[in-house]
Design brief:
ARM-type_fold, mainly alpha, 772 residues, EFR3 homolog B, EFR3-like_ARM, 2 strands, two-stranded antiparallel ribbon, EFR3_Homologs
């Protein structure tokens, strides 16, 4: 009877007839698609038959493999793949068992093509999310077989590469299929890791090919597999050996510096995960080496973006880069720098911070910068990327001693960049300073500039200023104030800059302030108010309104922190007056998406301004240094001046000399105006070149003098100028009417020096020059 059923097709089960119909007479014709659609529809309609379909397909495949009918073998695997993709019912488990049996049969074959075919089918299966759990499935055979394929020693180099690649892809599929399945055997068990890890390491080393197989077959780019594999490696080896893996990855990154950005990004992300794991053990001497390699890769990526190719010049056959991919790679490097630095102890993190800052190109004699348009772009991009990296490293950095967190050599270089023309660079510097100073997590509480009537809702964490912080501020406070003041005057500031400036002022007040610092910060903010009022810088209306609003927000904060009632009352009165008459001078109207500004800021009445005399009076009565409060803040001119297209200190000094000489009495005689003719203009144009050269040489000599001359000589020069200035001032004071007497009978001059009542005019002795 069974023989009759085998001979009579009409009596065969329908699922067998449907399976048979998908195979053409000639295997080169491929799968019969219409019949395959019928088989798929039948499997979906009768899912209980799916396991029989799988068993029958498996039977046919095994028979075709034995008869070397490889064309039909490929058709059978294609049919299985399509059924797997289409069917997600409860009977899928039985079908999968038949499928895995067929894949195992192909992998056991000596034919490389069949091994590759079986691997590809397994990878497709590994990407399928199954609806039902599998209780009795085992992947032990596949781990062993794929690991063997990773060590293929086929005599044909191309075939050997394909087999090894298939082995790696197969292991990738096993990891993906089992890592999140609690019902499967733990893939991290030693019995599996002892096979997987050596297979991966074997293919990472340089053999006959120039690159490793992970590079050849784009396994860095999906990142997930590479990251999981190296996590396996890092957790499988002894902690003291982890730095060896990191060194290999660093070397591999350098070797692939001209690979596609997606490949390099994959290596960097793997390096990030591996470095974090290694940091919990022993990293050894690879800390600075790792950062040096990453920073070098950043610079190379910048060059690729600027030149448009990996070779520095575009020619026939040159591999053109994709800028957006390079940007993604750069962000991956910066993220890796930050994530690794966050695991380091404080002393190592400080070393990394100094190391990165030393790489930032600055326009000085010791740090020459590239010239030309390309050079300027390269300098700017390098500065931005390194400052981004520094911001990542500084985020969350906490040190009890600000002297060690912000040493002089670091702070000097950082603040030099704070005065560059580039607005983005200045913003990064402000954020970096905030990250270092914020040790209690208060930064986010000042992300919005406002004039809160009660700052207790902010729930600020405030500690008393320590002795170390006091020493730091005594040494560096004027330097910080000066840069904050000059940053406020920048015309290119936007909303984010003012937010950062407000946050920096607020955090200094909370973290580093004693009574002296509070007084100086108030003087500083009042000086910023004067900048907006006098407007010698010709700032736009928005910038002037922003400075008024910034001052209002900060004084509102500091008044409530000092808890001096009279001080709080004065600040509150001015704010209320502004709300009624000039809301464009408050942050609630300025720091919004659509600022509500005025067209004219000239002639601001005194009731809208915070008055230095009033603040000095109310704070002086509460124990603050009223004498110091009376002195307007003026930034020191002895610090380094602006870099990157700004005046150097030598130029500043020479400019002062010019102003003094031009304003001297000997120069007061007026020279008759010269008639302007064509010859006059021609002569001026010709002579201007020579004059400019002479001026440049004179400035160079001034700078060189202040850089190389002994300190005693510079001190004597400055002392002589100071004595001359003082004598001139004394002469002026002697012939000038003294100020009117104060109500108390004496007035308090700068730094607390009392003066007597002023002399009546009729008792004054005027010089002979004034007598008719």
């Amino acid at each position: 009877m069974y023989g009759v059923c085998g001979c009579c097709g009409a009596l065969r089960p329908r699922y067998k007839r449907l399976v048979d119909n998908i195979f053409p007479e000639d295997p080169e014709d491929g799968l019969v698609k219409t019949n395959m659609e019928k088989l798929t529809f039948y499997a979906l309609s009768a899912p209980e038959k799916l396991d029989r379909i799988g068993a029958y397909l498996s039977e046919r495949l095994i028979r075709d493999v034995g008869r070397h009918r490889y064309g039909y073998v490929c058709i059978a695997m294609e049919a299985l793949d399509q059924l797997l993709m289409a069917c997600h019912c409860q009977s899928i488990n039985l079908f999968v068992e038949s499928f895995l049996k067929m894949v195992a049969k192909l992998l056991e074959s000596e034919k490389p093509n069949l091994q590759i075919l079986g691997t590809n089918s397994f990878v497709k299966f590994a990407n399928i999310e199954e609806d039902t759990p599998s209780y009795h499935r085992s992947y032990d055979f596949f781990v062993s077989r794929f690991s063997e394929m990773c060590h293929s020693s086929h005599e044909d180099l191309e075939i050997k590469t394909k087999i090894r690649m298939s082995g790696i892809k197969g292991l990738q599929g096993v990891v993906r299929k089992t890592v999140n399945d609690e019902l499967q055997a733990n893939i991290w068990d030693p019995q599996h890791m002892d096979k997987i890890v050596p297979s991966l390491l074997f293919n990472l080393q340089h053999v006959e090919e120039a690159e490793s197989h992970l590079d050849n077959h784009s396994l860095w780019e999906p990142k997930v597999f590479a990251i999981r594999c190296f996590k396996i490696i890092m957790y499988s080896i002894q902690p003291q050996h982890s730095h060896l893996v990191i060194q290999q990855l660093l070397s591999h990154l350098d070797a692939n510096s001209r690979s596609a950005a997606t490949v390099r990004a994959g290596i960097v992300e793997v390096l990030s995960e591996a470095a974090v794991i290694a940091a919990t053990g022993s990293v050894g001497p690879t800390v600075l080496e790792m950062f040096n390699t990453l920073l070098r890769q950043l610079r190379l990526s910048i060059d690729y973006v600027l030149t448009g190719s990996y070779d520095g010049a575009i020619s026939l056959g040159t591999k053109i880069i994709k800028e957006h991919e390079e940007r993604m790679f750069q962000e991956a490097v910066i993220k890796t720098i930050g994530s690794f630095a966050s695991t380091l102890p404080t002393y190592q993190r400080s070393e990394v911070i100094l190391f990165i800052m030393s790489k930032v190109p600055l326009p000085s004699l010791h740090h020459p910068m590239e010239t030309g348009r390309t050079g300027e772009n390269r300098n700017r991009l390098t500065q931005i990327m390194l400052l981004k990296s520094l911001l990542q490293v500084s985020t969350g950095f906490q040190s009890n001693n600000m002297m060690s967190a912000l040493p002089s050599n670091f702070l000097d270089r950082l603040l030099s960049t704070a005065l560059m023309e580039d607005a983005e660079i200045r913003l990064f510097v402000l954020e970096i300073l905030i990250s270092f100073i914020d040790r209690h997590g208060n930064r986010h509480k000042f992300s919005t500039i406002s004039t809160l009537s009660d700052i207790s809702v902010l729930k600020l964490k405030v500690d008393k200023c320590s002795r170390q912080d006091t020493i730091f501020m005594k040494k560096h406070s004027q330097q910080l104030y000066r840069h904050i003041y000059l940053s406020c005057k920048e015309e290119t500031n936007i909303h984010k800059h003012y937010e950062a400036l407000y946050g920096l002022l607020a955090l200094i007040s909370i973290e580093l302030a004693n009574e002296e610092v509070v007084v100086d910060l108030i003087r500083l903010v009042l000086a910023v108010q004067d900048v907006a009022q006098v407007n010698e810088e010709n700032l736009p209306v928005y910038n002037r309104c922003a400075l008024y609003a910034l001052g209002a927000a900060y004084l509102n904060l500091i008044s409530q922190l000092t808890t001096v009632p009279a001080f709080c009352q004065h600040i509150h009165e001015v704010i209320e007056t502004r709300k009624k008459e000039a809301p464009y001078m408050l942050p609630e109207d300025v720091f919004v998406e659509r600022p509500r500004l005025t067209h004219n800021l000239d002639g601001v009445v005194i009731e809208l301004l915070f008055r230095q005399s009033k603040i000095s009076e109310v704070l002086g009565g509460s124990g603050y240094n009223a004498d110091r409060l009376c002195v307007p803040y003026i930034p020191q001119l002895t610090d380094e001046d602006r870099l990157s297209k700004r005046k150097s200190i030598g130029e500043t000094i020479s400019l002062q000399v010019e102003v003094e000489s031009r304003n001297s009495p000997e120069k007061e005689e007026r020279v008759p105006a010269e008639e302007i003719t064509y010859e006059t203009l021609k002569k001026a144009i010709v002579d201007s070149v020579a004059v400019e050269e002479q001026e440049r040489e004179r400035r160079r000599q001034v700078v060189e003098k202040f850089q190389k001359a002994p300190f005693e000589e510079i001190a004597a020069h400055c002392g002589a100028r100071a004595s001359l200035l003082q004598s001139k001032l004394n002469q002026i004071f002697e012939i000038t009417i003294r100020p009117p007497p104060s109500p108390s009978g004496t007035i308090t001059a700068a730094y607390g020096q009392p003066q007597n009542h002023s002399i009546p005019v009729y008792e004054m002795k005027f010089p002979d020059l004034c007598v008719y």
